[in-house]
Amino acid sequence: MKKDYFLLHLSVFIAGFTGVLGRLITLDSAILVWCRMAAAAVIMFLYLRVGGLLKTNTRGGTDARGASLQRYKFGDVLQMGGVGMLLCLHWVFFYASIKASNVSIGVVCFSLVGFFTALFEPIVNKHQFSGREFLFSLLTILGIYLIFHFDSRYRLGIALGVVSLAIYALFAIANQRVGKHYEAKNMLLWEMVGGLIGLTCLIPLYNAFIPVGRIYPVGMDYAYLAFMVVICTIGLCLLQIIVLQKIPAFTVNLTYNLEPVYSIILSMFIFSEYKELNFSFCIGIALIILSVLLQTYYEIKKRKSKA
Predict the structure, then answer these.
(1) Where are the domains of the chain?
(2) What is the longest distance spanned by two Cα atoms in the chain?
(3) Which of 98, 154, 184, 261 is the most buried if burial means most Cβ atoms within 10 Å?
(4) Which backbone phi and psi does 272 adopt, to 5 degrees?
(5) In the chain, which stretches have pLDDT less than 70?
């Protein structure tokens, strides 16, 4: 159990970099996500392909178990690809939120994922609604309000962030349901492929409403994209799939409320978004952290009682 929660918080720490990278990379949000998913799909395919060859040719030396490209039925691939499409849409709206406002707005809106999960999970998984989970989620909403007071300058960014997090809540629930049946690395590959194909089909429609402008990286974009793909995409998604196999989706999503803390601290130093931390800001962050601590405590307590 301790290992599972350590991996969960490690994934949250890594996720804290994604908002900052989204602001640093100069591409439109849809093109940024396309490049991210394309690079991740290619890297995962090569990794699994090479791992499969090692597994076939090894004579007692190298252990490549769990790193081979597996074959699935079309229906299985469609399921994993559909989950990837939800992830793709979440990323597009998330980075659009950051570019329409700032890093802090985009990542603090992420705290709403616990609220949406508390609403969606009982419907999707057909279990009883949890008043306690809903109450913990209200703490995060209050925290967001205290931080930003829903400043009129950030309305578009907040709206895009809310849509992003509603989609992410559905992704996490679907990822948990589907991920139980497939090996994590192969599932990540097909999620990237599914999201990439779906986004490729949607970009012409997207471009009709929001011109994407430049479609290729320049300068430091390559370095930022490399870090985003290897660490914040492949590494992070693998951690999320592994964690969601052991820990309930609501607990995972609520713990991700800590992501804004890391991202806001980074954006303070890189972009000078917050030169002063006022009292309202500190109370808002404290409420978000409190909701995470309370849910983690009750989840551990419930698991111990079951054991």
Answers:
(1) 2-54+74-306
(2) 65
(3) 98
(4) 55, 40
(5) 1, 53-67, 127, 129-130, 148-153, 250, 253-254, 257, 273-278, 292, 296, 299-300, 303, 306-307
Give the pLDDT score at 65: 47
- Read out DSSP for the chain? -HHHHHHHHHHHHHHHHHHHHHHHS-S-HHHHHHHHHHHHHHHHHHHHHHHHHHHHH-SSS---TT-SPPP--HHHHHHHHHHHHHHHHHHHHHHHHHHHS-HHHHHHHGGGHHHHHHHHHHHHHT----HHHHHHHHHHHHHHHHHHTT-GGGHHHHHHHHHHHHHHHHHHHHHHHHHTTS-HHHHHHHHHHHHHHHHHHHHHHHHHHS-----S--TTHHHHHHHHHIIIIIIHHHHHHHHHTTS-HHHHHHHGGGHHHHHHHHHHHHT---S---HHHHHHHHHHHHHHHHHHHHHHHHHHHH-
Which are the contacts of 131, defined by CB distance < 8 A and separation ≥ 6?
none
Is the CB of residue 259 less than 8 Å from the CB of residue 98? no
CA distances from 269 to 146, 237, 275, 281 (A): 22, 26, 9, 17
Residue of 292, 231, 290 whose CA lies nearest to 5: 292
Residue 63: per-residue pLDDT: 45
pTM greater than 0.70: yes
Backbone angles phi, psi at 249, to 5 degrees: -60, -40
How far apart, in whole angstroms, are the C-alpha atoms of residue 19 and residue 263?
Answer: 7
Residues 140 and 110: their CA atoms lie apart, in Å, by: 10
Burial of 301 (0-12, 13-18, 19+ CB in 10 A): exposed
What the block records as the tokens of 68 is: 């081979």
C-alpha to C-alpha distance for 83 and 176, rounded to whole angstroms: 10
